[in-house]
Every structure is written in C-alpha cells, then in structure tokens.
Amino acid sequence: MTEPTAADVVVRPAVPGDRPAVDRLWLMFRHDLSEFRGLLPRPDGSFRDERVEDAFAAPGWAPYLFVKGGHPVGFAFVRALDAPVRVLNSFFVVRGARRTGIGLAAVREVLARHPGRWEIAFQYENPGAVAFWRRVAAVAADGAWTEEARPVPGMPELPPDVWISFGTAPRTAP
Q1: Range list of H helices, 50-156
Q2: CA-CA distance, 118 to 81, in Å (whole number)?
Q3: Residue 49 · residue 42 · CB < 8 Å
Q4: d(CA 107, CA 118)
C-alpha cells in the first residue's frame, strides 16, 4: 500500500451508515488526547462519546468523514452552525495519514463548506496540534487570526485550552 497523500482525499458529510467507522476513529482520537490530558477509558475500554452522538443527531452540528482510497482516515465535527461563530469541535487524522497534507486539505474543505467566523480549540501540551492549528489559521485566514487561552469549563484542574479565532470567505468560482 502506498503512503497516503492529500491528493484524492474525499471529505464528505458522515451518514448514519458511517457511524461504526466514526466510532472506531473516535476511540483513536480520544486515545491520542489521553496523552495530553491524562484521560482514562471507562471500565469497558471506551471513552466519553457524547460528542459523537451530538455530531450525528443534535441541531446545529455536522459530522464529516475523510476517506482516502476507500479507507477512513479521519473525521471532523462542526457545531454551532446555527450561531454566528462556528466551532470545529473535534478533528482527527489517523497517524498513518499525518504529515501528508491530508489534515490541511480536509480542514480547508470543512471550513469552505461553512464560510464565516470560526473558533478552534487545542492544547498547548500537544506540540503537533499547536503547529497544525496555527498553520491552518495562517492559511485559512491569510494571517488575520487571534489566539487566546481559556479555562476548560467545569474542569479547573486542567490547563486552559487554546482557542484560535478567524473568518473565512465564501469560495469563489474558478
């Protein structure tokens, strides 16, 4: 099998039939985050998954699946589509597809589908996320973005999340 690249990655709305794949990708995502926040799985080996439920069923949410050559390689959950500022609530690319351009291509596609104001949170403890999200903001917002630390609601024991904010314009026809 060849190494994944950004070429030919398909970013599409996730449908109920995608739920098993998204559920498995979610476990990988939460496992990755556990390194930075000390999150432990529940006794059955799963992690909190209310965001997956919301992404598929709650108003104002949209789940996306990233597919490369028939293989699921990541997902994004967008919330607050019915609000003035959209939030990229969760974003994940499998390790085997990282640093190939797939993540940047996927996030740019998701942002383009919902032009306007955006906010994205990440953790300073995750150096890969820090570099990635700053790069996304620089590319997507032509350098017009802000960054601020905010406490994690209801979890004062955790370090603050870092939020980037920027706006995107509607796509222009080629």
Answers
A1: 50-57, 102-113, 127-140
A2: 10
A3: no
A4: 12
User: At a CB cut-off of 8 Å and minimum separation 6, what does 156 contact?
Assistant: none
Contact by Cβ (8 Å): 6, 104: yes
Neighbours of 33 (CB within 10 A): 18
Residue 95: closest CA among 138, 35, 162: 35
Distance CA 33, CA 28 (A): 9
Core vs surface per residue 113-152: b (16+ CB within 10 A) or e: bbeeebbbbbbeebeebeebbeebbeebbeeebeeeeeee
- Return per-residue pLDDT of the chain as tens, 174 residues: 455 556 789 999 999 999 999 999 988 888 777 676 667 767 777 667 788 999 999 999 999 999 999 999 999 999 999 999 999 999 999 988 888 899 999 999 999 999 999 999 998 888 888 999 999 999 988 879 999 999 988 888 888 989 999 999 887 655
